[in-house]
Design goal:
Elements: E1 14-18, H1 25-41, E2 50-54, H2 60-69, E3 75-78, H3 95-100, E4 105-108, H4 111-116, H5 121-133, E5 137-142, H6 146-151, H7 154-166, E6 178-181, H8 195-212, H9 215-220, E7 222-226, H10 231-237, E8 245-248, H11 255-262, H12 264-270
Parallel strand pairs: 1-2, 1-8, 2-3, 3-4, 4-5, 5-6, 6-7, 7-8
The structure holds 1,3-dihydroxyacetonephosphate.
């Protein structure tokens, strides 16, 4: 993260929790409630550090009701969306519906969707357009697998994913874009990319955004790191000046652990 002289961040850090296919709608309410209490107890400043969760589709209505009813400051979004708005697309979910449920963000191109559902860069470009049509901030996930990392092509590979997904979109359209760098080999494996790896790729992503658009645009976009982020390693990962937050999987399913990740600034002081 980069801070200014007055201690505020240049870009508001974001700690996001991707629940993947975990938590039914009852568990979801309990988890968000506990997270909100824990963050309140810790005196969390939401204006300073944004917090969002990405529950399964079936949980979103419950989360919306809770967030609205208790006036919680936790943001939420979906893990995927259709590139179409409505019609004969059995099993798909429109961005229109997500917007109606109060979602502010949507994950696009998570490596598990790329792998399991064979989502292509072309489809992801179309999904980003769908998100933008419906007022959802797209969180585009990019990152390389182990083989590519070992071959030394990881930067080239990740930047190609980025450029393909953003093809034909303008800086104006993409003003709410968030990029999440998630090296596939570090997801759910306990292997964390080192703080240098996270910084190296985030800087490369920012430079690519500057090349595709402008320096000003690149400096306004938040770039998160994801892959085995825990309370114990978050502070060192976020030290990189181009790393603006974390996309957390497993550790976001435990309210206290996730709240501790959100409170990463406290670890900075004590480490
Ligand atoms: O895929 C991830 C978040 O989207 C990372 O998952 P883990 O934090 O469980 O490694």
């Amino acid at each position: 993260m980069t801070t200014q002289k007055d201690g505020t961040f240049v870009r508001r850090p974001l700690i996001a929790g991707n629940w993947k296919m975990n938590m039914d709608h009852m568990q979801a309410i309990a988890l968000v409630q506990k997270l909100a209490w824990t963050l309140d107890d810790a005196g969390h400043d939401y204006d300073r550090v944004q917090v969002s969760v990405f529950p399964p589709f079936t949980d979103l209505r419950g989360v919306q009701t809770l967030v609205a009813g208790d006036k919680l400051r936790i943001d939420y979004g979906a893990q995927d969306l259709s590139d179409q708005d409505s019609g004969a697309y059995t099993g798909d979910i429109s961005g229109q519906f997500l917007n109606k449920l109060g979602c502010g963000q949507v994950l696009i191109g998570h490596s598990e969707r790329r792998e399991i559902h064979a989502e292509t860069d072309e489809l992801l470009n179309s999904k980003i357009r769908a998100a933008l049509r419906h007022g959802l901030a797209p969180m585009l996930c990019v990152g390389e697998g182990l083989e590519i990392r070992e071959s030394g092509q990881h930067i080239e590979h990740t930047l190609a994913q980025l450029a393909e997904a953003l093809k034909g979109l303008s800086a104006e359209e993409l003003s709410e874009l968030i990029v999440a760098y998630e090296p596939v080999w570090a997801i759910g494996t306990g292997k964390v990319a080192g703080p240098e790896d996270a910084q190296e790729m985030s800087a490369a992503i920012r430079a690519k955004l500057a090349e595709l658009y402008s320096q000003e645009f690149a400096e306004s976009i938040r770039i998160l790191y994801g892959g085995s982020v825990k309370a114990k390693n978050v502070a060192s990962i976020l030290q990189g000046p181009d790393v603006d937050g974390a996309l957390v999987g497993g550790a976001s399913l435990e309210a206290e652990e996730f709240a501790n990740i959100v409170s990463f600034e406290k670890h900075l002081v004590t480490e």
